[in-house]
Amino acid sequence: MQPMVMQGCPYTLPRCHDWQAADQFHHSSSLRSTCPHPQVRAAVTSPAPPQDGAGVPCLSLKLLNGSVGASGPLEPPAMNLCWNEIKKKSHNLRARLEAFSDHSGKLQLPLQEIIDWLSQKDEELSAQLPLQGDVALVQQEKETHAAFMEEVKSRGPYIYSVLESAQAFLSQHPFEELEEPHSESKDTSPKQRIQNLSRFVWKQATVASELWEKLTARCVDQHRHIERTLEQLLEIQGAMEELSTTLSQAEGVRATWEPIGDLFIDSLPEHIQAIKLFKEEFSPMKDGVKLVNDLAHQLAISDVHLSMENSQALEQINVRWKQLQASVSERLKQLQDAHRDFGPGSQHFLSCT
């Protein structure tokens, strides 16, 4: 950042005691009316424009050179002394503003770099979502995010250092809150420029601080999201494997069922009782099936959708469970109907005795 050049001094510089003669000469009405030199009268009555950014009216060069005639000459050494004092004060103001601009410039660049870096990392963090509904993929994403968090964490000390420097700078150069900051122009005073620079540093530091807090909070939230997702996927995967095994056992028992027509009439009560016990034995599967479906629903709410493989496995669990329930209910109904139609209390049984 190039140092800002002071265009004019807004401050009223103290007048030197050596200017008293010049003031008396400048405001003397008798001199204006009696001075034999018209050019001197014009120089006295019309102050020259500010010189060298001092911001206060200065006498004309003719007066400073002492060419005012014999009626009212000014002492060149005294005038030169006062002029040098003004130039010195003006130079000091320039040096102060340039030093201030240089200091603020050393903060603006790293603050902007921090803002750009944090914005980029925020985009990279967003690109990690959504998570895939697969244990292996989420485990891989967990490792990637851990490395990402380490990178952000390692950047922390530098960010804190720059923000602390900005805070120290602003404590030394406070600024007034304005609804609409002054725009820079050639007439902007050094004080306003310092205020504008302080305000700009404050805005950068505020944005950087907010981005840092947002990124670190999102990192923690995403870490928890990954951990929770991995835990739910492991749970649903384990539950589906257990359900698949239990369903296979139940389907194995179902495969041993004899056709109703091949059963002895007197064995029907025994078969009815056996199918009721079978239904009770495998009833806990209902809770297991409900659990895996609830877990899948919770994952979907978190924008985590099961992989194709897991989705197909879950669908098969639901289909097999419904088929088992239907076959058990149908088997029990057939046995009870046969017992009612052909059992000891049936008309068919009585007619055959």
UniProtKB/TrEMBL annotation:
<dbReference type="GO" id="GO:0099536">
    <property type="term" value="P:synaptic signaling"/>
</dbReference>
<protein>
    <submittedName>
        <fullName>DRP2 isoform 5</fullName>
    </submittedName>
</protein>
<dbReference type="GO" id="GO:0005886">
    <property type="term" value="C:plasma membrane"/>
</dbReference>
<dbReference type="InterPro" id="IPR050774">
    <property type="entry name" value="KCMF1/Dystrophin"/>
</dbReference>
<dbReference type="InterPro" id="IPR018159">
    <property type="entry name" value="Spectrin/alpha-actinin"/>
</dbReference>
<dbReference type="GO" id="GO:0045202">
    <property type="term" value="C:synapse"/>
</dbReference>
<dbReference type="InterPro" id="IPR002017">
    <property type="entry name" value="Spectrin_repeat"/>
</dbReference>
<dbReference type="Pfam" id="PF00435">
    <property type="entry name" value="Spectrin"/>
</dbReference>
